[in-house]
Amino acid sequence: MKKNAFTLLEIIFVIVISAILSIGAFKAMEMLYLRSAKAKAITDMTLRSQIVLDQISIFLYDRIPNSVIGYKPSDNSCEAITELVSSKPVLEWLATMDDNLTNREYDGFIDMGLSDNNSSGDGYWLSASNINKTIDDNDKLNLIFAGSFDEGSTSIKACEGAFGWHKNDSNLSFDIKIDDDNNITLTDENDSQPKYIYEKYYLTKTAYAVARGEDLNKTNLEKCNNNSYIFPNDINFTNTLFLFYNYKPYSNNETFCGDNSSGGTQKGDVSILATDVTAFEAIYVNETIRINLDMNRSIRGSTAVHISKQKVIF
Description:
Elements: H1 8-61, E1 69-72, E2 77-80, E3 90-95, H2 98-102, E4 111-116, E5 125-127, E6 142-145, H3 147-150, H4 158-162, E7 174-178, E8 183-186, E9 201-204, E10 206-212, H5 224-227, E11 241-247, E12 254-256, E13 265-267, E14 269-274, E15 277-285, E16 288-297, E17 305-313
Parallel strand pairs: 12-13
Antiparallel strand pairs: 1-2, 1-3, 3-10, 4-5, 5-8, 6-7, 6-9, 7-8, 10-11, 11-14, 15-16, 16-17
């Protein structure tokens, strides 16, 4: 009588075949997982990079034209973006008070006929019939005449005594006060009074800076947000892109908190724009600012995923 039983050789053969099939199935599942992880990372970074570029472009849209600079904290060097001869890792600019302008709290124009273009008493005064005194609010507003920019003057040196960037003078940015008769008085010292007065002007009360952690001082971030900012420990500081605001370079040599140079007093607030940012660059081409952004994310067991995007800002 024949026995229904497996021999040892048959059992070994079955085990070997099962092992081969299991390895193949595992490899197939691993490939599916990696492909899914890469697709998810690409989708996520594509959306986040676009959102970040859109956010930066919105802020830059309200820039004061010739106040935009490139800055390198490691050697405290700065150049107007229109004159960049080498890449600078930090982008900075003065912002207009666009919200107040939209709310019709001022219109950005003065009456040249009623304004006093001679320095006397407390300084020059400008007749701005449509300005609302409440926007002053002890917020250290500064006024910058648009004429210097609209005429395309090549004498404007943004990093050399124009707006106060990184311990420089601010000879083209003027402290003001607004009286009950809707007059704007330029309250700078007499030697800082403007050589020319123009009909159009900008108001500003904050500067902005965009920079990666690689070019910053992590310890200085503790000075941000009224000395209360704490950077998350689970995020790579080097590849984090930050937005700095609420600081005034024309006032007491203020610079953005996080600046790792000795080029001013660190002030203001910070927020995270994006993580996984391996490169950030701003260049000036044909009267537009072009923002280049690279993002990189590691995928365990596979090559990293890379996204590169550009945004043109007019």
